[in-house]
C-alpha cells in the first residue's frame, strides 16, 4: 500500500506541529481542493520506474502493487470530484485513534480490530463516544503527504475503499492518532464520523 505536471497550481505544503495535525490538514487539502491534489499526484507519478517509486525528497524507494495505474486512477477520480467541506477534529475520535495506534505499534499488529476484538466503533464507545465510526490505517508512511497519498492512491486495494471513505460527504469529523510501529516504523490511524464523537447525528442527518 502506498499512496502532482503542467501548469497546475498546487497549494503550499502542509506545515503542522505534529504528524496527526499534519495528516488532518493534508486530508482537508485533498477534500477541499481535489483538482489541486490531482496536480500533486501528477508530479508524484513522474517518480515511478515500472512498479517502483523513488522519492528522493522523502528518502523512499518502494515497490508498489500496481505502479502508475493506481495513481492514474486516483487522478481521474480527483478530476471528477467536487470540493467537500473540511473535516473538523473530533476529540473522542482522536483519542480512540491514538489508542489503536499505540496498541498496534507496541504489538506490531495490523488491521482494524483490537487485540480483544474491539471494532473502531467499540473503541470510540470506550472513550465516551458512539459506534458510528469508520477507519483508515496507514503503515510505514512517516509524513502527512505520504500518509494521505497512501489512502488516496489506494495501491493494491481493488475497491479503493480508503479513498472513497475520505471523500464521503457525510463524514464531517475525524481524529488522527500516529505512533511508532514495531514492524513498519510508523502507524497512523484515522477515525471518521458524521458526528464529532461517533454518536448519531441529531435529527438523523
UniProtKB/TrEMBL annotation:
> Superkingdom of the source?
Bacteria
Key word Membrane present: no
Keyword set, alphabetical order: Hydrolase, Protease, Signal
Q: Name one GO biological process term.
A: proteolysis
The residues the entry assigns to the signal sequence are 1-16
Which residues does the UniProt record annotate as the domain SCP? 80-191
What's the protein here called? Answer: Serine protease
Q: In which organism is this protein found?
A: Sandarakinorhabdus glacialis
